[in-house]
Glycosyltransferase (Digitaria exilis), 481 residues
Amino acid sequence: MATDDTKQQTVVLYPFPGVGHVVPMVHLAKVFLRHGYDVTIVLVVPPPGLPGFGTGVTDRIAASNPAISFHTLPPIPDDAHLSTSGKKKKHPFLLLLHLMERYNDALGSFLGSIPRARLHSLVTTMFTTHAVDVASKLNTPAYTFFTSAAATLAVLTQLPALLAGRTTGLVELGEEPLEFLGLPPLPASHLMPEVLPHPDDDELCRTIVNVWTRIMDADGVLVNTFEWLEAGPVQALMDPRCVPGRVLPPVYCIGPLVGDGASGGEAVNRHECLAWLDAQPARSVVFLCFGSRGSLSVEKIREIATGLEMSRQRFLWVLPTVAGTDGSVNLEALLPEGFLERNKDRGLVVQSWVPQLDVLGHPATAAFVTHCGWNSTLEAIMAGVPLLCWPLYAEQMLNKVLITVAMGIGVELEGYKAGFIKAAEVEAKVRLVMESQEGRELRARVVECKKQACTAMEDGGSSDAAFSRFLSDVENLAERV
């Protein structure tokens, strides 16, 4: 129940500009709103040309969430952050990380414009942790919202000590398993590619590790997960061995936060794909979607098409961006000759955004071919849909291990390891999930995960209690200032 005091307080959320960070922040904002707080999400304008970092989607999100205030910081001139070192151009993601840090002054000015008595807290994400310095100067509680799994957080907290004990990077270990507290053995190759070099030899690796290290400087970490789902990693985050010589701030598992359908209300009219799903039998459709940054070559896309056709299963396929193009491609030329005509009664190919949560929750949807982004993983769990895992980038290979080994709610398309998944494997794995006893067992386990997730989010459930504990801890911090 909201109080008069909480209605006067403002929570400032400061996400990294990627869609995969902004969308979960919107979900978090809605939790604060339900507790009676005002919420402002502070955005920056990223440099043009970065995939998955465009302003169009964030503008649409802002327009469809009028209860949340959005504030865009004044752009910083390009000439400083686009400079290169010698003849070698810096990685675009490295430039963006440096740019974000340069926004600290502008963020401080905005926070300073809010009366101290009204400023409840600042919440950063995993790539904006440097902003804790801004909050510290203003004596404002600062927290990090970790939008990936608790397992990923456990890896990141243990990573600096692992790298410090080596003279070479992790890339040379290949498939050699690494031991992290709270996780199954993890092949070195399954870590984020950016941290495989040694920090002493690679500026991007060094910068990312430094940014992640700052998580421990926050007053606490909100994680988009629930304790039952990741009991091992959550316990590891409370183990002194997780970060030798330091103790992590409190960890609050407050998820799963996945929105309420239609991607937070982005679509005014019901999407055509949902009408198509209405006409399909229950649990008969394989849904394929590879996220906002998913990109595959023409050859890989044609292999998927051939495998789907061979499987004889119904499918809804959100076509990923075609590598090497600007996104505008002719379907007839892209897909195998005659594919669309032969499959017009069994499949639908879409080239634009679809309301993923609504598709997963539709009674006709039976399986999900996914890049294993954490947001997508949680949405599949909340829909009770098993996953076929095709990780593409970032921490998605780690998520694949969680999905297939720790949780047992999906299978991997093994060809991704060699960079090419053949049609025969697409056919076999789709049939396995859709037709076999193993597929039925996967579905039963993910349905149990959904049940536990709903319990965690109920009044008095573990995630609801964790959020209440977080609010109490913020209040205690404020009283000590």
Notes: Residues 178 and 186 are 5 Å apart (CA to CA). The first helix runs from residue 4 to 7. The radius of gyration is 22 Å. The first strand starts at residue 10 and ends at 14.
